[in-house]
Design brief:
By secondary structure, the protein is an all-beta fold. The protein is about 0% helix and about 60% strand. A six-stranded antiparallel β-barrel has the order 1-2-3-6-5-4. β2 and β3 form a beta hairpin.
Length: about 100
């Protein structure tokens, strides 16, 4: 993965494009994790029920013998429109 020179993130992002579940307000919704870093991820969603500052739970992957699933809490720090979908930039606050 090539990262622009002016990217000042403390941790590199890994592009993964993997389905994930989002638990929010008592409902489970689907999304796609576009990229993942040590402190956050970008999630593509079809619905626009989220707002900056919302806390969500994310569950990524089914887990295998060598790679457990990633589950935890995250805060939405930015929402960007991309066509008929939205991309949530989230900060991971707690991993389970």
């Amino acid at each position: 993965m090539i990262t622009p020179i002016n990217d000042r993130r403390a941790f590199r992002r890994m592009a993964i494009e993997s389905p994930l579940q989002i638990h929010f307000n008592g409902q489970t919704r689907q999304g796609v994790c576009l990229d993942l870093s040590a402190t956050g991820m970008s999630i593509e969603v079809a619905d626009s029920v989220y707002q900056v500052g919302d806390e969500i739970e994310v569950h990524l992957g089914q887990g295998t013998a060598t790679a457990p699933p990633l589950s935890g809490k995250a805060n939405i720090i930015r929402i960007s429109a991309q066509g008929d979908k939205s991309v949530l930039a989230v900060e991971l606050t707690e991993l389970k």
